[in-house]
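Table 4 source record.
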Amino acid sequence: MEQEQEYLTFILNGEEYGVDILCVQEIRVWSSVTELPNKPDYIKGVINLRGIIIPIIDLRQRFGIEPLEYNEQTVTIILRNQDAKRPMVVGLIIDAVSEVYKFNKKSIRKAPAFGNKVDSCFLKGLASIDEKLIILLDTTTLLDQDEMYRTDNKPSSTKQISSDSQEERPFADAEQSS
């Protein structure tokens, strides 16, 4: 029997995205953050969650999408990676939580090739449910400090891809504002 993986899906700018549910620590309503100096615009600040300081990332801005004003419907998903050697917890500000879906590996399709001018380091693949496509995010990369906090548009040196590689990068990084 094919092993299935569950994904928590959420809405961001009208599109549905999914993250591995095993990395979801909790879902919280928006609460204020402590702002930090000298940070990219997409890093909103930090919160203290039961003694753990967690950076809060506006995923719209991280993906180069115009930010929305936060209100009582704004949601933060707290993600925790599974890497004991390099643990990381991060909060992602999203528009709304959607559903939980199960997908097997065969139902997840690679994104089309966009060349190395487009950054897709956070993309795991695409899955379809009832005529809609769900963009599945790679939680390993999403929870990688080097990728999450990168402020340029170039793939990191450890993730450099060639034009004939199967791994392409379809999300543009948000540039740091001066």
